[in-house]
Amino acid sequence: MRSVPLDDDRARALWAEQQQEIAERYDGEPDTDADFIQQMRPGDLLASFLATDDAGEPIGTGLVRWSPYDTGAGSAEFKRLYVTPSHRGRGHSRVIMGAMERAAWRAGAVRAVLETGTEQPEAMGLYRRIGYAEIPNFGPYQDDPRSVCFGKELPTRVLLLNGTMGAGKTEILGATLAVLTDAGARAAAIDGDWLCQAYPHHDEADPHNDRLLVENLTAVAPNYRRGGYGLMLVARAVEDPRTREAYARAFADPVAGPAQVAIVRIDASEETRQARLKAREPEGFYESFARHRTVELQESLEALDLDDAVVENDGADRYEVARAVLSAADWWVAGEEPLG
């Protein structure tokens, strides 16, 4: 599987074969949406794939774009799934579909949608086997009795930026959101502290209001999903081994299931943290509290070791740190081209 541009001659040759096969199956009728590429807007394309065999010969294609139809915010539409007849029956279509789902998921899509037809029973069988369900016909297929549309809900991805006071969680949160959105992804960010700043604490056994935070995340998560934001960034220190499971449930979808949660700790030297805290905290109680708390919390986070990765934030460019965070979480690879 490789990504190719829209004008790749090998992919276009296979698309022409696909269109000819569709016409033959549907009594000479062309694909209802045959000209969709000419109508695509800048930023619509998420990925165009070319599958080749061991000798490098093209054997299949798949294309992913943001759906321009009324399929719900954050819907990615799959197009041009095709495998040459001589290579069918070997699972290649399933592999191409997997690559398209990953491309959509990586871009922050909350669902995948596609169209096939009544004269393509093998395609309908594949989609049902890999978790797709029939949905109302959309766009140009609404009044086509031979069109059958399918959809699949994709789990939300949550990236939790862990770290002690002064490590730079909030700054890197903003930079990470900027990197994702500049690349064309659908992402949103939440500073977890601001969802649970409440005094006095309503439960002495929960001194940092973690339960209140999870309750608030659970309440707002459906709003982000309805808005089509499949990538959620949250900045918050992680002091409870149950946090990953709690966030997975908070951002769960009834159909797609629990969210996938990655935890990356932002780290900085004590000297750097203390300097940041001195600059930002008002003198007196809050500065004194922060200076002690950063040391205590750092020791706690290191002992708990709940992170998937640790990224240094000690004087580096914040956008470079953000890219390192995304790469460490397997959300992004540093140096990758923008989506599409």
How would you describe this structure to a colleague?
There is one protein chain. This protein starts with a strand and ends in a 12-residue tail after the last helix. It is built from ten helices and twelve strands. The protein has a seven-stranded mixed beta sheet with strand order 1-2-3-4-5-7-6, sandwiched between helices. It has helices at residues 9-25, 36-39, 92-106, 121-129, 169-182, 210-226, 243-250, 270-280, 285-304, 318-328; strands at residues 2-3, 45-52, 58-66, 75-83, 111-117, 133-135, 147-153, 157-162, 187-191, 231-235, 260-267, 309-312. Strand 4 (75-83), helix 3 (92-106) and strand 5 form a beta-alpha-beta unit. The protein folds into two domains: 2-153, Gcn5-related N-acetyltransferase (GNAT) (Aminopeptidase, 3-Layer(aba) Sandwich); 157-328, Rossmann fold. Helices cover 37% and strands 21% of the residues. With 340 residues, the chain is α/β, with parallel strands linked by helices.
